[in-house]
Specification:
The chain contains 20 helices and 14 strands. By secondary structure, it is an alpha+beta fold. The longest helix is centred in the middle third of the chain and has 56 residues. The N terminus is likely disordered.
Amino acid sequence: MSERAEFYYHAGYSTRNIWSFLPPPTRRRQASPAGALIPERGSCWPIIRTFAAKLRLILILALSLIEVGPLSPLSAHAVELNLTMAASPVDRGAGGASKPGEIDMTALRERRKQAQTDLNTMRESLEFKSLTGPAREEEQQERRALLEQIVRGYDEQSSDFQRLTEARQRHADIVRSSSEWKGFPEPSPYSIFLADRLWDTVHSLKLAAEGLQSQRELLTLRFEQAREALTTAEERLRQASERLETTKDRGQVGRERRDYELAALRARAASVLLEAAQLSITRVEEELDGAKARLAFEQRQLDAVSPHVVFSEADLVQVRTRLAKERLRVEEQLEQSIVERQRQSQTVQQVEQRLHLLRNKQAGGKDAVEETPAISRAKAAVELARARMDNLVSQSDLLQQLMNVVEGERQLWENRFVIVHTSEPGKAREAHERFTPLFDNFRASRDYLRQQAGIISGQISEAENRMRHSSAPLRATLQDLIRTFHEREETYARALHRMDEAARFMERWREEFKQQQKEVPLFDRLEELLTRIGSLIQDAWRYELFSAEDTIEVDGKTMTGHRSVTVGKILTALAIFLIGYVVCVHLARAIGRLAVTRFGMAADVANLLRQWSQAFLIMFLIVLSFSWAKIPLTIFAFLGGAFAIGVGFGAQTLLKNIISGILLLIERPMRVGDLIEADNVRGRVTSIGLRSSTIRDAKGTETLIPNSSFLERTLTNWTYSSRVGRFSLRVGVPYDTAAQQIMNLLSALALQHPKVMKQPAPQVLLDEFGTQARIFTVNYWHEISPDVDPSGIASELRFAIEQKFAEAGLKVLPAI
């Protein structure tokens, strides 16, 4: 190319850059499938851009023909891309397209034909290796991949446009049929089979609509990715164009031009994919609208039929006949499968024996190092025989499951007939609760079949891979193996199809149940709720916790059997025990009162008698409550292990404390009301029990001390033989005070206290000589009784001493 032609070539391509600096036209966003921007009506900007692009294309073509001849295929496509980008889909949309997704099929076919021609040329150049160098070869490989991508994009647009046209036609037909439909020609009531057929159609259309919505989301994601790819490709194209414009070295012009053409081809491929994604979104949205329109039409028909459905006895007979025939056919197939399994089992044994003989023969040879072809063929035959055996086993299992499906469907039809012809709302609830485990088992079976279908698909892939890398003698056997795997896959597919039919019927049955529950009156709902609560209470009352062995007498014969220990029996025994416990406590108290009033026993002895009698009565009550509730006493043998361990560790201490309590009552080292001190606890005895005694200290805290502690350790009883006790307090007096005066004063103050005894008289002693004062000790006596607090008396004496010393001008010093 000459300098002038190269200048105009660059100037032509840079015209797009000049236009890119102009302010963009005013745009507005309209609701379109791809969310494209559509220019304002009346704007002249698209016309100007299209005219400029065409003028630039004419100039480039003219200069190319004059100076360098025709453009290369890739250059022509680069020019086409500039025109396409100058007249973008947004601008082309302003040209008067009536509907979203309308394209010029003639132009699309021409572009596809030209792209295919370029692709064939590129393939020929790669085949004959007309281009040399690794870099050029990688570049040509990328060009071929981009051209293939463009061809596939054009094919996808052509297919989507055809499918879009068909979808619009179907949508229009559905809308017309829906507007013209005035009802069914036959009068009501309608057969339940018609309602089921309409329900199946509605259910399938809902699933189809959900699938189309998911497909639209995936295509939207693909559209966004394509738009990002186009943006990146256009950016790189602009950069390549700038490099081509600014290149001065003639040696670099060719390489930059190739880079520019490759970038243009990338942008063209991204543009084609973007348009294909946009058209796919439009097609899926049209199909979704058609599915929704048909769904609305079928739902309208179902709503018209549902209130007038009748389930007659003849319909039930027809269902029974159909299911009976199906069950008979499945049973025949199952019997045939069992016979074939026996025959195939013999075949497996024969081929395994043949393989065993061949291996033994090979082991007897001296040069047997590698596996011979005969052994390989025998191993393949064993694998094929086992696979066929597995097919028969799987077929038998599936037929057994299908028999269960048929039987479950029959039961559902029977209950459906009963529910339709009964007015009791609780029947439907009972049937739903009874068949809930069937639904769970059925769902688990379907999941298992899908899992097995996936496994057999992997086995087919593995066998095909082996066949590609195996020798010719083994390929026939492997082909038979693959065919066997396909037969098993088809068996799973048929079973899944039958289970899907049953699943739709079960879902229909559950929806009928929900709809019936919504239409139940409020009074019936309350009645059903109370019935359910009562049923739950009965079930909980009869719930078996465990069983115990018991001896039962039947017709004069003694038999050993098992009795259930239920929640009701436990609660009954507990109620009897609680009521009897109150009676036993009052009876034991009455025995204690009679022991004191009639027999003149001491209060503590009577208290012990009351406790022992209460213990025996409670033990008798336990046996009586278990007998009345019909709970065998062997329950203790059931719990005997844990009970024996507990007794082994605790009986020794328990018996020791009980015997100690008896000895305390016999020896009487302390009585109720005594002031004692034991285990660093000082207080009064409030009770002496079988196992422990209770002591209340000056703070009002009650402490339970085991009876054995009073016999094994030191016990101080302040009131054992006398209730008179001596108490002391210390007073510090300065040395400059007369000692006799202090002694007289302290003695007089002690005698003045009303609770201090006069005989024996208070005693004042000079205890010791302290560092700062002489220490006097005041000893006084008073009676120990529950209403006398020794600490309170000591506090009152200290207040009196302090007041008297203050009046006499004396000081009270610390007694240290």
